[in-house]
Amino acid sequence: MSASKSSAALLPPGVAEDEPPFDLDLVHREHGHWLLSFLRRRFGLEAAEDLAQETYVRAASAKAAIRNPRAFLAKVALNAARNQARARAARPRLVSDHGAQGAQAADQAERLILKETILALPPKLRDVFLLSRYAGLTYAEIAARRGLSVKTVEDRMSKALKICAARMRD
To answer: Domains in the chain, please, with CATH?
Structure first.
């Protein structure tokens, strides 16, 4: 078996050997606004931002090239929405089965991990992340407020999301 045949056998079906690997930063820059718009139409503004973040966290594990990034992002986002709906439906059972204190303790632990993760971000990334996710500013508003280009804001946000995704997976 030749080297090219053996490496081609390791690729997922439908992925050509010469295709570049999945690049989350590039996909975020090229399709991020589309994804938010797609999710806003279906789930509303507040849910759209959470789902977009969850989509990028999940998409970060993609190993192979993606031929249609928008279809891929839409599928991942819709799966994330389905999982969130299931979790919300299961939450009352957890509270009744384990008591309200158990559910509160789990929520507190999750919030603590998130807070530690955000505080551990480098200051430039943390600033952009907080302005976007907690202050609700758009990338253009953040760029204007901080004297940065929108591209710089996008890059910093992408890096912050990667760091957060890696830490939350651990």
So the answer is: 19-98 (1.10.1740), 120-170 (1.10.10.10)
pLDDT in the model for residue 127: 93
Burial degree of 39 (CB within 10 A; 0-12, 13-18, 19+): buried
Instruction: Return d(Cα 8, Cα 16) in angstroms, integer.
Output: 8
Q: What pLDDT, on a 0 to 100 scale, did the predictor assign at position 55?
A: 86
Q: Could you give the CA distance from residue 99 to residue 66 in angstroms, rounded to a whole number?
A: 44
Asked if 77 contacts 35 with a C-beta cutoff of 8 angstroms, the reply is yes
Residues 6+ apart with CB under 8 A from 112: none
Contacts of 76 by beta carbon, 8 Å cutoff, 6+ apart: 55, 58, 59
Q: What is the DSSP string of 23-55?
A: -HHHHHHHHHHHHHHHHHHHH-HHHHHHHHHHH
Task: Mark the ranges of the chain whose per-residue pLDDT is less than 70.
Answer: 1-22, 90-107, 168-170
DSSP letters of 59-81?
Answer: HTT--S--S-HHHHHHHHHHHHH
d(CA 39, CA 7): 37
CA distance 90 to 170: 24
